[in-house]
């Protein structure tokens, strides 16, 4: 363990979230220096058991979003477990939860109850659906949100929707939640007041997707179809020996590209100079590029396109991403020695802060690993902690 150095050093967060959306947000805040106490059930976050692992309860997926945290295993249905959380809330700056608000209220930890214990508390609720709408009580998972937000329709079509093969809803919303908590902390510095923060998945992803995908429906009444034609047409192109993405973007880019490959007649034929005509003809333009691409190897294309200052890249395999030239040079993927799980590979915090650089100060915790440590800090003595463990109000790793 090292001392946290990020801009949120000194901020304490009670992380009552599980799976991906909330834990990812809490990890970002922990990466930025906050002291994050992950409060889990005695069985642990279900994400512990998802994916591959060396030891049960410590999957790679779990450890990817739960570093820089301490684990306290707590039964919030047990009166003594509730009393522990009630004692911790006044010591915290932020409480994160993705338990549905009605269930948190039944447990006695709704916003009003927590604010009564700590008026400066930022109470951040990671919800599926905004709590002022008719779907407020529904459960939400990534697939539900991709479907309901229109994202799956945009990726596929209205007739045949498709999911993005990544938990993008959870991860985008996790980043939104980390930003919202940071903004609320900044507001508290000005006003001295805590507040309720809600980040609903459906609204967040629907708004995110709408930026380019509303298309003609961005106007009222609509002036054309929904969607963004270029998104449907862009595809990897096959070179002589592999795959690339080539992205001449401006009129000058396209002119330079077609001149360099000896197809200058396509400049006028496909009207690449005019941005409006280029957008209308993008299917034909991309088809021409795909027809030309197999004439050169990937390395030959990279040399030419770099000289022309045309955006491009070869494709990286996920299994080899740590060896990608740029990411290797900036050291994105760090080798971590975990005390129980051995060598791990994880992406370091990507965000840079010149005066308060983030660091990896704690490995992902085993279930209840820090229960005793956190309770001692909260004022419990050793005998009291033993009694809580014996009563199964607290789990000790």
UniProtKB/TrEMBL annotation:
Signal peptide: none annotated. Keywords: Transferase. It holds the Pfam family CoA_transf_3. GO terms for molecular function: CoA-transferase activity. Coiled coil: none annotated. This is CoA transferase. It comes from Rhodopseudomonas palustris. The lineage of its organism: Bacteria, Pseudomonadati, Pseudomonadota, Alphaproteobacteria, Hyphomicrobiales.
